[in-house]
Amino acid sequence: MKHWRIFFLICSLFHFLPNEIQAQSPSTILDKAIQMAEEHGQDIGSFKVRVKVQEKARFNNVIGIAKKRLAAKEGIQMGQWYGNQTIDEVQVGHLNQMIHGIESVEIFHKKYGKPTLFLWPDFYQDFVGTSCVSPLNYQAKFYYHFNYKGDTLVDGKSCYQFQVAPKLRRDRLFNGTLTLDESGWIVRFEGTVFADAIDYSFDLQHQYFQGKWIPKKSRIRLLAGLLGNDGEYVIEQEAISKPEEWQFVSTLFQEPKNPKETLNLFPVAFDETFANQFLTNLHESLLQKWKQRPTSNLVMIDSVYYKPAGNGTKLDPSFFVDEPGSKTKEVRVDSFIVAPFKPSQLILSRSFFFGKFKRDFYPFEIYYKSPVFDSNFNTVEGFVVNTSVVFRKRWARYRMLEAEVLGRRAFGINRNSGFGRLRYRADSFDLTLTNGDYVAQYNPENTISPEMNSLSTLLLKNNQMKIYRSKFTSLNLTKRFSARFFLKSFIEYSERSQMDNTSDYYWINFLNREYQSNNPINGEYDKAGFETHKSFITQFQVGFRPFLTQSYRANTRITDWGSSPLILAKYRAGWKDVYGSTTDFNQVEFSYLHNIEVNPWIKMGLLINAGTFIGNKPTYFIDFKHYNGTFNLIQAGEMLASHRLMGYYQNFTNGSNQRLNVNHYTNSTAGTYVEALSFFQFSNLWLKPLLGMKKLYVKEVLIANVNYVPNQNLFYNELGYGLDGVFKVLRLEAIANFINGQFSYIGFRININSRIRIGNIPE
């Protein structure tokens, strides 16, 4: 009896002990992990550890000449792994703020290298990486099933394993095994996710250190393909020393005072060697997408320095491509290859380099632009060819002085024309002076492709490009003060002359139609053509991105161009009596471009243009506000940038005698105008779930466009549906058009797959 009393006494004591000491249910631990996620994410830091980082990639299949190029230029074989191994000491302030002391870098099976920085995805956020829903999202139980698998011991600590599976049939949801300790810390996560046409897999293992679980060992793998090319990318990381406490000093992670910043992306887009750029882009993508902590208000900063090697010598950063401090290492990239001259080289456009090679550029270049691929046809000049020679003097790879001479031969009217151009351009400054006798399009901001106009003219008797003769001198200035703010100005003095159709030549007599006049008219301007006159025009434009997200790698500022709307203000004027000018108008325009991520599966793009003419109405139709432009059967570019209003989708309309004969200038105006272009892109809407197209990464698009022109009593709108990413490269659209509320027609169009960064890349 005595023993039973002792037993009941012990049970009673356990009953009244605090809840923390009692055994917890798996459900309680999971709830605690979700509730404490933000706090745990903030607590990981203030330690240092030596790590080994292996970054590698391989191409499993490459089609065309790229396969031979990889082998010949960069020493990379199909199916062969290539990459880097980096040893460095990492001092961690937070998961997105680290100091990297590079000790050694070893490259294998490729010619060029650079250190690979340690990174660790933060699954304590609600959304992680490419807007993927974290298993510890505050609404995790709405998105996921959590099935308890059992308990285990890790580093002598009791842990609990949960199978995580999506409740919804959508991408951007994880599937895997989550291991938690009794306090809700992540001990290990093994899982996969599909996002942005890429299969990601993760194995993140943590170690116990001073009451928290910090990074120990990880493996992140990406698998993707495009147009028959496919490959994989792996980054493996491992702590090779015991972690030590490191006193976190917030001042070490202040934004650099004079950071380097790439402002002009266009000249630098495809100059890197292919394999090196592939690795760099993937790693930078991982850093930006999986390391950013947008809800923490902590700027992502990776400081980099080079530690002495074991023999006491300091690691030379010049060994690496584009690393801070690099001065002497020659990086032989494909865009600067010197080869013996051969006459056959003049068939295609080509650059010829001279002078002593300066690490990644030659000081002198002569660029020859061949007429072979710059030939076209229009109904005014007949067949034309252009050719030019450009001389460049470089002081740095993207800082140069250019002198260009271009010649144009119009065979139909037996006329030679051309221009000379002098241009100084750098990363943040671009100044261009041009003088010549050339042709200009009525719509200078949305010009129609001469090559595509040639095809639509010869094959479909649809001559949309309208041109006039311009003897001109112009000055263009672009100044980028930062990624957030830029200004552009333009001055042109010209003599403008009318040009008329001179040819009715065609290849196919499509619908037996007649060519349109080269001098368009509409309800606001009924006089075809114009008298030769002089014109003095200026334009000033300011661009501002107020909410741009930026991060830092060493002393380089990295910009997420899609994180902020772009706001534009433009003033354009024609100045009467200035050097005999007869143009007289004042136009103001405001634009707002923004892409918004409504949730991980819905993105919205919005472009609004509103403007008016103040004072005198423009005398010449050339100076009206024009729409459309870039009229092609197949469109390329950003979703909103390639959308145009008023008859644009009539190109494939069945049953209409006006197919592909849309007048781009029907609604050009000299008054007030408001246009709004928008689209909504859905990962799952109607058709995709019905057809089970998840792995095809086809997205559905809803389109809504509006244009209001008071002078013409016009309220025009379009409503459409599309599939984006068909075969990963095409966008198919069907659009219904309405004029003042009355249905007009339905049109169709084929486009190149769009990127949802509308208006947010540099202008």
Based on CA inertia axes, which overall geometry fits? globular
Structural class: mainly beta
Largest sheet: 19 strands, mixed
Instruction: Give helix % range.
Output: 10-25%
Mean pLDDT over the full residue set: 82
**Unreliably modeled segments:** 1-22, 267-273, 318-336, 631-637, 651-660, 756-762
The total of helices stands at 8
Distance between the termini: 88 Å
> Tally of extended strands?
36
- What integer value in Å does the Rg equal? 31 Å
Brief summary:
The chain has 763 residues and is mostly beta strands. Helix content is 10%, strand content 44%.
Give a structural overview:
By secondary structure, the chain is mainly beta. It is built from eight helices and 36 strands. It has a 19-stranded mixed beta sheet that branches. It has a 15-stranded mixed beta sheet that branches. Strands 4-5 form a two-stranded antiparallel ribbon.
